[in-house]
Each structure stands twice: as structure tokens, then as C-alpha cells.
Amino acid sequence: MGKLKVGDEAPDFELKDQDGNTIKFSDLKGKYPVVLFFYPKDKSYGCTREACTFRDSMSEFNELNAKVFGISSDSVETHKSFAEQQKLTFPLLSDVGGKVRKLYGVPSTMFIMPGRCTYVIGPDGIVRHIYSSQVNFANHVSEAKTALEKIRANAETAEE
Predict the structure, then answer these.
(1) Which of 36, 52, 66, 90 gives a 20 to 30 Å CA spacing to 25?
(2) What percent of the chain has pLDDT over 90?
(3) CA 22 – CA 156 distance, rounded (Å)
(4) Which GO terms describe its biological process (predicted)?
């Protein structure tokens, strides 16, 4: 599968979180909007800042009824240590080997470093927004919140 675009159906996947629980994307579809933020590495400067910015905004994501997941190629054990150290309140999914990263078409930086890319997926499983920036860590959070607010506004308009 090539690079995902807005309007595409989000590919299904199954990954373990930092507690060893299996998370299936198909279990969320039809229930919640989902934010998937792919990041290069646990405990690195930029990834720590990005994860903590998501953590600090979780009340807003909860108000929008959204589920947030961080995804990197780190192991379940590394994710557990990182989540505990930073008091993260959302699941970190272990994509060892980068299979889901490839499935979503997350770009690499300079062909070697895993990219930093956020996907906002509507409750219908359709990709509604994609934001990719290796250095603007906080923008991943603000972009995701703006996209979720649009999803909610469109759903409210459709109900009227």
C-alpha cells in the first residue's frame, strides 16, 4: 500500500501497547475518532516533547471523544519505561519492524530517520487529516485538535 491520503480508509492493524494489551484498530472503528501519532524514538528530545504535549492536552481530546495512540518501533518494555517516566495517559503502541508505519506510508526524514506524522481518523475509519513535521512537535497536537473539532462540527451539522 502506498502513502495514505485524506479521504482514504485507514488500514486495520493490531499492535501491543506498553502494558502488553493488544489494540486492534477495527475495535475502535465506528465508535471513536482516532489520533495516531507516529514518532521516531522513545526518550529522545523531540519525541518526549511531542508525547508530553499530547499528555498535557488529553482533557481536550477526551472532550472530543477521541482516542490517542503514539506509535514507534520501540519495544513494549521501552514504551512502558517511557510512559511511566513521562506519566503518559494514553497507549504507546509497539510497531517493531515498522510494519504499520509502512502500511500508513509514514515518510522518513533524509531517507533514514523514521518520520513524525499524525493521522486523524474519523469514527467512520476515513483519514480526515494528516500532519507531518519532524521539528514542529507541538503542532501535531494543535493540528489534531483542530481536525477533531471539524469532525465534531460536521457530525453535529449532519444531525440537524
Answers:
(1) 52
(2) 79
(3) 32
(4) cell redox homeostasis; cellular response to oxidative stress
The residues that are catalytic are 47
Rounded-to-integer distance, Cα 143 and Cα 119, Å? 10
**Interval 62-70 mean pLDDT:** 96
**Phi-psi sector, 43: left (phi>0), alpha (psi -120 to 50), beta:** left
- Biggest CA–CA distance in the chain, Å, is 48
Q: How confident is the model at residue 2 (pLDDT cuts 50, 70, 90)?
A: low
Domains, the chain, ordered by start: 14-159 (3.40.30.10)
Residue given cell 489494540 in the structure block: 23
Q: C-alpha cell of 122?
A: 474519523
Is 0.85 surpassed by the pTM of this model?
yes
C-alpha span between 111 and 106 (Å, rounded): 11
How many whole angstroms separate alpha carbon 76 and alpha carbon 82? Answer: 10
d(CA 104, CA 126): 13
As a whole number of angstroms, the distance between CA 31 and CA 24 comes to 13
